[in-house]
Write the structure tokens for this entry.
Amino acid sequence: MESLTQLGIGFANLFTDPINLVFIVVGVFLGTVAGLLPGLGPSTAIALLLPVAMSLDPTHALVMMVSLYLGAEYGGRIAAILLNIPGDPGALMTTLDGYPMAQQGRASTALAISAVASFIGSILAVIGLVFLATPMASVGLAFGPNVYFAVVVMALLLSGTLVGGSVVKGCIAIILGLIVATVGTDLQTGTPRFTFGLSGFLEGIDPIIPIIGVFGIGEVFWNLRSRGSEKTHSVSVKKFVPPRWSELREISWTSLRGSILGFIAGVLPGSGSTLASFFSYSLEKRISKTPEKFGTGTPKGLAAPESANNASVGGSLVPMLTLGIPGSGTTAVLLAYLTMYGLDPGPGFFTKHASMAWAIIASLFISAAVGLVLNLPLAPVFARILEIPRIYLFPAIMVLAFIAAFSLNNSVFDVGLVLVFGLVGYLMRMVNMSPALLVIGVVLGTMLERNLRQGWVLANGSITDMLFQPLVLVFLAIGVLAVVLDLIAKGRRKKKAVVTSPADEEAPRH
């Protein structure tokens, strides 16, 4: 009941200041555009809006940012359905049935079904957030610095295994982020760390800088390398056609299952919408009586990943708002914004800034409804945006990135740093390393160091007294176990591939 009361207060705060509703609509619209344009996405869009956010009231800015995040999950499906190009990695599974539906002349139906499934996922996930927020924040307040240190370590290890690819490369990316977080003057000893004699490094590197570089400039470099000058040709959408009741009834249980899986995946640090959509699609195909229809344009194959995609947004906000742990690359950016505004991300956020916290949660309900209302009738309009040649789009993104970097401290040095991190992000993509993990490492690095030092002091410098506590060992064990199990699973898959490949080569000879 307390959660519902707080939620009611959150809605009251939103409607008391009607400008919040304007920022919600603007956020959802910008998010939809950011999501549908391949290579942009919510992380980049939120980072590029820094100059705007700095001029706004924190509540207005954060309401707009979370609305943009949710809107981007709506938008990601548009390019996936019409172009067979996912607007973000989470929309990859949407292409499997969404694009075939579009090729069959059912593009409008596919867009409508995915919008409804996204709405269901968003609403159910925010309901989960409402009932988990207060209990998790209460638990977090009971954590000492040594337990919090273990929670951060667990989050980093889980991120390294769940983002995908090589665990070793994932850990390297996180370590790079942690190193970036240590740059600057040590606040306790006054000793410069990794400054290389440059005065611009003395105050450290603001997390927003690598975020803009990696997600903004880095993505531009990567997309220019692969398809910068190509023109897009999408399946046309002449007019809005609402989904039939029979189609909505067909996807209802699919959307419910996808929402639950997406919410759980979102809560786990590092998993996010990509794994959420994959798990949901795989489960739906496995339990279906007609699995052969998946991949040919079945509504269930479209609703499963879309409901999971949007549900992962609400899930990823649970650890960010209650524990200060980012559940995805985008929530890492949001966490950096909270820090920039001088707010205390984590359990204290719900006690020190309760009205703002619940206003943000309440705004997600409205954002989900606005996303549905915008995405149903405006599908033909959004489809036209896909026709913008990327050769014009990418320079605009770079200009916005440089403006955002300069506005942070009015420093040309920061602009140069953004360019460097853009190159780092590009090189990481080249070697199949996740740039999002570097950002998570940067954002969590300061928290990790602070709690390590506080825990060390409280334990009188004894590592055993600090770490050999039940809760600390549990969290550390979960993180280590996740890495070990991931390495074992990948080792078995590699061994199986080696065993089966000779047989595949010899088969044609018989």
Q: What stands out?
A: Residues 2-232+240-493 form one domain. Residues 228-233 have pLDDT under 50 and may be disordered. Strands lie at 184-185, 192-193.
